[in-house]
């Protein structure tokens, strides 16, 4: 979806790295996160300030190979090294399907997947207060809902995955202000293949332990990728900074205007197809005022959480028969009546998808 915008930007985001540049393991030995490229850190701070989606004061930035590496670094850093039992990692269903897989992959003694946070909360009365980490994903993957923690225990540890808290997907109502927040270029600018994410971390010791995890895991994070991500984030910030160097010409959209409008168009197209077919249902989202764009709108998530109405039990198989690929609800801790569909492919694929969906008959 983002490819066309970046093509139109042409040379603005071209980066040349000569053979002699960025050779060392080290980026900034004065920083707690010693492999963090200063120019990448600057671009992160500038963009958050412009968009107003996260508090960056008194936070440590830890860069990761995607927010996927930072998720694992966070689990490692947040668990006491000598707890009597593994910490339960929970998230409210439907949750991002990779969380359980990433949590249990290496059979860590520090933590284990604890499933749906709603159920964990019910099972954990005062006599059975197991330690836990809750992952709060807002807007949520797969259903696009705006979320808060659900377990709400005073000793609870939270990780906020804010991959989709950007103004093309949802109104920016206030700067997120949590202990540990994860972001990624995969969803903010579309550069999933660059594999760059960042964490904003309040606690110094937690940030240090996350840095240690990445040091032992990959001895840092690709400098080439950080420099490319910095260039892209600066281009996004330039496009929003009307009147500044690199701001768009008269009548040209900023990055967030462009991507917001495209998402709005796609959601209208999808809702029209669903209405035509009459076999499916989509979530509705409340209207919110976006302080960044100074307009009210409903969330328009990166994924559609589609429900098959009526007798049909397995929505994924049904759609496959109509040559639509989706991911069934079971992967997300929900029923097979639901599927998740990406709203971010290239135009041609998206048009084909909505056309096929609209022709499905009972
Ligand atoms: N968190 C959520 C909620 C996601 O949807 C994704 C990507 N699907 C990720 C994290 C992973 O992002 P990255 O590419 O930065 O590893």
From TrEMBL:
<dbReference type="InterPro" id="IPR015422">
    <property type="entry name" value="PyrdxlP-dep_Trfase_small"/>
</dbReference>
<dbReference type="InterPro" id="IPR015421">
    <property type="entry name" value="PyrdxlP-dep_Trfase_major"/>
</dbReference>
<dbReference type="GO" id="GO:0006520">
    <property type="term" value="P:amino acid metabolic process"/>
</dbReference>
<protein>
    <recommendedName>
        <fullName>Alliinase C-terminal domain-containing protein</fullName>
    </recommendedName>
</protein>
<dbReference type="GO" id="GO:0016846">
    <property type="term" value="F:carbon-sulfur lyase activity"/>
</dbReference>
<dbReference type="InterPro" id="IPR050478">
    <property type="entry name" value="Ethylene_sulfur-biosynth"/>
</dbReference>
<comment type="similarity">
    <text>Belongs to the alliinase family.</text>
</comment>
<dbReference type="InterPro" id="IPR006948">
    <property type="entry name" value="Alliinase_C"/>
</dbReference>
<dbReference type="GO" id="GO:0008483">
    <property type="term" value="F:transaminase activity"/>
</dbReference>
<dbReference type="Pfam" id="PF04864">
    <property type="entry name" value="Alliinase_C"/>
</dbReference>
<dbReference type="InterPro" id="IPR015424">
    <property type="entry name" value="PyrdxlP-dep_Trfase"/>
</dbReference>
<keyword id="KW-0663">Pyridoxal phosphate</keyword>
<feature type="domain" description="Alliinase C-terminal">
    <location>
        <begin position="1"/>
        <end position="360"/>
    </location>
</feature>
């Amino acid at each position: 979806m983002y490819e066309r915008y970046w093509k139109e930007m042409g040379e603005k985001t071209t980066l040349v790295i000569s053979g002699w540049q960025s050779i060392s393991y080290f980026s900034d030995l004065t920083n707690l996160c010693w492999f963090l490229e200063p120019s990448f850190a600057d671009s992160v701070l500038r963009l958050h300030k412009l968009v107003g989606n996260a508090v960056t004061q008194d936070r440590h930035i830890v860069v990761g190979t995607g927010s996927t590496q930072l998720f694992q670094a966070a689990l490692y850093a947040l668990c006491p090294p000598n707890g009597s039992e593994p910490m339960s990692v929970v998230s409210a269903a439907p949750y991002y399907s990779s969380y359980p897989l990433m949590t249990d992959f290496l059979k860590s003694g520090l933590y284990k997947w604890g499933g749906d946070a709603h159920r964990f909360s019910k099972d954990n009365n005062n006599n059975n207060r197991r330690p836990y980490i809750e992952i709060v994903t807002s807007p949520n993957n797969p259903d696009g809902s705006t979320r808060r923690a659900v377990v709400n225990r005073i000793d609870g540890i939270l990780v906020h995955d804010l991959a989709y808290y950007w103004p093309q997907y949802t109104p920016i109502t206030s700067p997120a202000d949590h202990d540990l927040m994860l972001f990624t270029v995969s969803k903010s600018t579309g550069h999933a293949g660059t594999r760059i994410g960042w964490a904003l971390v309040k606690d110094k010791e937690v940030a240090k332990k996350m840095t240690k995890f990445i040091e032992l895991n990959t001895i840092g994070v690709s400098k080439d990728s950080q420099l490319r991500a910095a260039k892209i984030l600066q281009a996004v910030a330039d496009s929003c900074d009307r009147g500044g160097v690199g701001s768009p010409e008269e009548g040209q959209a900023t990055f967030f205007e462009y991507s917001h409008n495209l998402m709005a168009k796609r959601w209208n197209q999808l809702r029209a197809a669903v209405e035509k077919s009459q076999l499916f249902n989509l979530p509705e989202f409340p209207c919110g005022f976006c302080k960044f764009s100074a307009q009210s709108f409903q969330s328009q998530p990166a994924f559609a959480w589609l429900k098959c109405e009526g007798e049909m039990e397995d929505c994924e198989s049904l759609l496959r028969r109509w040559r639509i690929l989706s991911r069934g609800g079971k992967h997300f801790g929900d029923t097979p009546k639901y599927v998740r569909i990406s709203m971010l492919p290239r135009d041609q694929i998206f048009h084909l998808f909505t056309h096929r969906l609209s022709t499905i008959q009972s």
